[in-house]
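Q: what sequence does this backbone want?
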């Protein structure tokens, strides 16, 4: 199960071995200062609908990997048991967004935003949370 956590001033997305194979990608990490906002998604599968995919995708079931389209790069980690999730909007990173399925996306969004430093905070709270 994908896991989001804040450590050493960075937001990390840790993937299981199977998720790494499915995503054709390893763990991801960005400085917390790159996080612009975190949105709760009722359908975390939707953002992966448009664009070229690299990874594993079964529409509405599994989104695991990179989606490129419209000049944007999105990394998605959404499984059937976590159809809801968060959209993490990034600035200054290869990925413009991470879409991560979570059992409790509201808590994950609050925790991440609460951990950002006051000078980089633009929209609310942040701390480690589980996704997947």
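A:
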């Amino acid at each position: 199960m994908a896991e989001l956590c804040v450590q050493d001033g960075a937001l990390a997305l840790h993937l299981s071995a199977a998720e790494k194979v499915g995503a054709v990608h390893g763990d991801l990490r960005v400085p917390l200062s790159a996080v612009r906002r975190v949105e709760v998604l009722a359908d975390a599968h939707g953002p992966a609908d448009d664009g070229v995919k690299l990874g594993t995708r079964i529409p509405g079931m599994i989104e695991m990997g990179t989606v490129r389209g419209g000049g944007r790069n999105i990394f998605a980690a959404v499984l059937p048991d976590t159809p809801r999730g968060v959209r993490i909007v990034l600035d200054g990173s290869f990925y413009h967004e991470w879409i991560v399925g979570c059992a409790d996306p509201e808590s994950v969004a609050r925790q991440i935003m609460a951990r950002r430093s006051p000078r980089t905070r633009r929209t609310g709270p942040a701390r480690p949370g589980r996704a997947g």
